[in-house]
Amino acid sequence: MTHAFARRGIVAAVAVVALALTGCASDSAGGKEGGDASAPEELTPVNFGYIADFNGASLLAVAEDQGLWEEHGIEVTTSVFTNGPLQIQALGTGDLDFGYIGPGAMWLPASGEAKIVSINTLGSADRVIAQAGIESIEDLKGKKVAVPEGTSGDMILNLALESAGMSINDVEKVAMDPSTVVAAFASKQVDAAGIWYPLINTIEEQVPDLNILAENDDFAETVSFPTAFVSAPTFVDENEETVSKVIAALRDANDFRAENMDETVKLTAAMLKLEEASVEADSKNVKIMTSAELDELTEDGSVAGWLEGMNSYFVGAGKLPEPVDPATYYTGDLYVGAGK
After folding, report:
1. 213: Cβ–Cβ under 8 A, 6 or more apart, which residues?
2. How far, in Å, CA of 78 to CA of 47, rounded?
3. Where does the signal peptide begin and end (predicted)?
4. In degrees to the nearest 10, what's the CA dihedral of 258, 259, 265, 268?
5. Mode of pairing for the β-strands spanning 286-287 and 211-215
6. CA distances (Å), origin 171, targets 18, 132, 189, 190, 283
7. Rounded distance, CA 212 to CA 220, Å?
8. Which residues, 6+ apart, have CB-to-CB distance to 210 below 8 Å?
9. Distance CA 148, CA 106 (A)
10. Can you give the three-state secondary structure of 56-124, one letter per residue?
11. Per-residue pLDDT reduced to its tens digit, 22-65
12. For the sheet containing 211-215, what is the strand order?
């Protein structure tokens, strides 16, 4: 991805910190030069944030390798982040144009701080893990539990506690960034954590006898866990043509991923400088849908249903004062329109 222009201040600062924390990110997937022969000569510059895992990076890796950004008239510069809320902040300050969030950050678009321009996947990578000897959610009462605030790790912890008739007040919640959760759990400074794969793989290397107390699939009948690409509301309103171009590129990358999973794993591993086996394992924790399927799911109200389920959870968790109509923050019309 091109670096013809310098990153703006906050993105550069956050990206440097995030790179140091994750140790597994790259600004380039090492892809093809020039894109399609019919690509427009004038490219629209876009700053795009991502998280250094399969969910957060795979479409960016594919779009770069396949020349899809250039084909759709976009020049992309990427910056790695450790979570979705940080990207929402950068969208708000204008230092990012687009970003990626997991289900735990979906309350931020619902709060009006971003708009969802494209659904990415349905995730199932989140877990509540505990040290050996802690066998159930009920055993967490009074225990120290680490969690990255406002993320899907936070969400899975709250869902698990609720299912056991407990609340966050029944544990000693310790807010940490994701990499600190890994270190704290591995060094047994905390009793449990709400966290996700592939970070759990790293923890398991040091704590092989950890227990998994809860996972996304435990709540599949009541809530789905969508991941998505987002932009600032003002950017969407003022740059609809650019947004449509980006969505079109993401749609093409999504369909490539759906049809070429092995190649997508390789491209993502190269972008993130990770072992292919690790990225492949991470890819097993997602449900991938084609763009045509996402069109249908958008038009028949399924996506709105997922987001309404998120809203209900976030109201109960105190993140939202009341449910919000997904039509106010999911640009489904733009997503479907970009495929026509």
Report:
1. 127, 128, 129, 130, 134, 135, 136, 137, 140, 160, 192
2. 6
3. 1-29
4. -70
5. unpaired
6. 28, 17, 15, 11, 31
7. 17
8. 129, 130, 131, 132, 185, 203, 204
9. 15
10. HHHHHHHHHHCCHHHHCCEEEEEEEECCHHHHHHHHHCCCCCEEEECHHHCHHHHCCCCEEEEEEEEEC
11. 333 334 333 434 444 454 469 999 999 999 999 999 999 999 99
12. 172-175, 144-147, 192-196, 126-130, 211-215
Let me know: does 66 contact 252? Beta carbons within 8 Å: yes
Tokens of 75: 């020049």
CA dist 313 → 19, 213, 269, 270 (Å): 32, 20, 33, 36
What is the per-residue pLDDT across 248-260, written as a single tens digit (0 to 9) for each? Answer: 999 999 999 999 9
Q: Where in the chain is the domain with CATH 3.40.190.10?
A: 44-123+225-337, 126-219
Amino acid at 325: D
Q: What is the CATH number of domain 126-219?
A: 3.40.190.10
| Distance, first Cα to last Cα, the chain | 26
Instruction: Give the pLDDT score at 38.
Output: 52
Contact of 311 with 112, CB cutoff 8 Å: no
**Residue whose structure tokens are 């495929």:** 339
Fold classified for 44-123+225-337: D-Maltodextrin-Binding Protein; domain 2 (3.40.190)
Length of the chain: 340
